[in-house]
Structure formats: structure tokens, C-alpha cells
Design goal:
4 strands; rod-shaped
Length: 129
Amino acid sequence: MTNYRLLKNQAGFTLVQAIFILVVLALLGAAMVRLIGVQSSTSVMALQQARAYQAARSGLEWGAARAAIPANCNGAMTINGFQVAVICNSQNFTEGSGTYAVYSISATATFSVYGQPDFVSRTVQLRMR
């Protein structure tokens, strides 16, 4: 009879354990869903950063081609949704009997507006004679 009373007093304990396990599993599931979302957005942003770098490189090549003519190599353009600003400065040097110009070219590609979650910006620079 003593064993029967002991078991009767613990009758609801399994329900408490089951609810605890369900809560823990629900929290783990929610954490995994969030982790998958972060991982997905990270890969998308990595792709956007690579695209911004290539857009900036295109602007740099444009500026270098314009400087080689020589022409005004400052400018702004849109490449696949990226705003690209090209800034070019030149400085003349004299060496021996010759004078030559050295160009410093900088291209910045941006996507979206600063402070937005999809904002990306890349800047590349080049010096050429």
C-alpha cells in the first residue's frame, strides 16, 4: 500500500517533463529557422559585394581609358543598378628632359542608400602614367 501512495503522488510529473521538452524543442526550432535566414542573407550580401567590386573595377577601367587619351576621366555612371563615381587627379612630373603626367584614379560603386540593410559600397584605386 505504501508503494501505491508514492506512485499516486507523482502522477502529474511526466506531464511537466513533456511540456518542458516541447518548449525546449520549440526554442531550438526557432533558433534554427533564424540561423538559416541569417545564412541566406549572408550569401546574398557576399554576392552583392562581389558585384559592387566588379562595378568599381569597370569604372576604374573606364577612367584609365579616358586618362590614356588624354580626356576628362571624372564621371558618374550606372552599371547594373550600381552607382559608380570615378574621380581622377593628375600631377605632372619632370624627369630629365621629359615631362609626364601621373593619374590617380578612384572608383566607388554603391548600391542602395547608406543605413539600409542592402547597402553595399566598394572603392578601388589606380595610379598610372
